[in-house]
């Protein structure tokens, strides 16, 4: 995609894209964003024009943007088509791996006329350092929980599994089909992971631990290897992703050493 001139009025339809616009040095040009665009703090003040369900196409058009950033896996194709039919330039972002982040940074930088090379380099260097640090550590098997009732995990080629790999851990359900499969309790007990990692999968850490306390026969529960992490740095692909991976790796390392995660 190419624009006649750098975008001056940008609308973001995903929280991760909102973060990347700020990372690209174009945050001052954002005129609206999606629901849950809460980082950096100034993003909270932007008008909301989309939610997980749909885009308010009329609200977007009324802002006269010269660029709309849409997320392929989170924006309905019909909304993208509607915006395009109104003459709005829409960039559809696709990202499912860590390496997609610097590519998106560069794409947004090109569209906004900003230099993202430094931010992309810092992002890649931080991830590479984590890979080196944990490359030869003892493997740890993990159940990655994104929802508890029904019990939902992440499978396949997904950046959250990439995060576990970076930390020298493996997802016990990585082999399942789909992206976010629901798993049975019988299968959880059969695979009996070393640790259970909840990515903001309950209404706070206390509830997360209380729910798992009911499954005391699991090795991870008996040994206190229950890890609860905030979602935004792990479920959003952004410049903050290495920070979230570092927090995950630190928790996995405490499991590896035999100490209960803090």
Provide a descriptive summary of the structure in words.
It is built from eleven helices and nine strands. By secondary structure, the protein is an alpha/beta fold. It folds into two domains: 10-115, 3-Layer(aba) Sandwich (Rossmann fold); 122-257, Nitrogenase molybdenum iron protein domain (Rossmann fold, 3-Layer(aba) Sandwich), CATH 3.40.50.1980. The strands form two sheets. Strands 3-2-1-4-5 form a five-stranded parallel beta sheet, with helices on both faces. A four-stranded parallel beta sheet has the order 7-6-8-9, with helices on both faces. Helix 4 (100-112) runs antiparallel to helix 5. The longest helix is centred in the middle third of the chain and has 18 residues, at 117-134. The mean pLDDT is 94.
* Share of helix, binned: 25-40%
The profile of the biggest β sheet is: 5 strands, parallel
CATH class of the largest domain equals: Alpha Beta
Structural class: alpha/beta
What form results from the Cα inertia axes? elongated
Number of helices: 11
What's the name of the CATH homologous superfamily of the largest domain?
Nitrogenase molybdenum iron protein domain
Query: What's the number of structural domains?
Result: 2
How much strand content do the residues show? 5-15%
What topology emerges from the helices and strands here?
Elements: E1 10-12, H1 15-23, E2 30-34, E3 48-50, H2 57-62, E4 67-71, H3 77-85, E5 90-93, H4 100-112, H5 117-134, E6 140-145, H6 159-166, E7 169-171, H7 185-191, E8 195-199, H8 205-213, H9 219-222, E9 226-229, H10 232-235, H11 241-257
